[in-house]
Each structure stands twice: as C-alpha cells, then as structure tokens.
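pasting input
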Amino acid sequence: MDIKRTNEIVLLYNFYHSLLTKKQDQYMNLYYVEDFSLAEIAEQLQVSRQAVLDNIHRTVASLKRFENELSLVKKTQEIDNVASELSQIVLKHYSNDKELLRLVQRISKINEM
Amino acid sequence: MDIKRTNEIVLLYNFYHSLLTKKQDQYMNLYYVEDFSLAEIAEQLQVSRQAVLDNIHRTVASLKRFENELSLVKKTQEIDNVASELSQIVLKHYSNDKELLRLVQRISKINEM
C-alpha cells in the first residue's frame, strides 16, 4: 500500500487531528506536515520503520472512517461553494436587501465555528 | 455529579456515537435511549453500578470534547436556522429567481450529507 503524501490525507488530518491519540498525532505530523521519511521517524522515535508505517496506515484508515461517519470535510466544502455562489448573486442583483446580505454573511461564517 | 437524561447529551450521542467504542455505545444506548437505570444496566452486564456510572461519565465527557473540537451540532443548528430564514425571504420576495431557489435548496440539504 502506497501512503505517499496526498492533499486528501492532509485535509482529513487537519479536520480530525483532535480525535487522534498523542502518538498517532505525532507520527502523522512528522510524516505529513514536517515531511520526514519513514526511516527518519523510526530513528528519531527508536522504533522500526515497519512500526511507523503500520501506525500511519491505521491512522489514515481512522481519518477516512471519521469522514465517512461525520462528513465534516464534505460539508465544509459545500458550505464554501454555496456561500460563494450565493454571495455573487446577492451582491449582483439584491445588494440593497440588508436582510439577505446578513444571511449570506452568516452562511460564510459557519465554517469558522 | 448528576448525569440525568438530558436532551443535550442525547443530541451529542446521536451525532458522535460512531466515534465511541462498542462498549461505550452499549452503555449509552441502554441508559439514554432505552432508559434503563444504572442498577438495571449493572445487573444485565454483570458489572458494578459504579462501573456503569464511571463509564457513562467518561463517555459523556468524550462527547462534549468531540463537540468542543468539531462543533458539528452547533454548525448543524446554524445551517438549519439560516436555511429556514433564507427560505422564507426568498420564497416571499424572489420566488421567480430559479438560481437563488436552487442555492437555498442546496443549503437545506447540507445537513443530510
């Protein structure tokens, strides 16, 4: 199984890292954020390269399961897309409707919660 | 600490139950959904009443931590509120704007993802 650095995994990690154990978080951070190699992580943490690989595999599987169950990434992206399209229409055609503008702003802010 | 049945906990449980272990899920379901007493759960699972209580306390703390980290409940409620207010305004004043109606529908559907 190839676990090369991918945007998808980093995205999942950014959303769900708080659900990982400290150890899982540490391995993921070293590999995907700090960009260390498996061998370098193994040496630094005094474990085998295979142990690092297994740990990262399991964590990636957990992250995918979290998204499968909670859909946070998918929802966040849809909110961004809808907010952006809605904002364009409202600013172009209904910019005098304060109430509508206020609601568009509220949608844009949901992802900051 | 009083852990009586509360709407807030049931709501958190509904959102995050997939992140619990099988055992945690079982205890929570018996107590908050099936409405068994601590003593009844203890008898059924052959553990002490205190063990049941401790387990549920820890699980409730986990559920609160999940919401604190991920804000899924808060975001879902805000999406519902904004979708509802937006829908009223658009149907009342801009019901001839198909594009706007389509976007309102997309917002309403985010929580079904």
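fyi Chain B has a mean pLDDT of 94.
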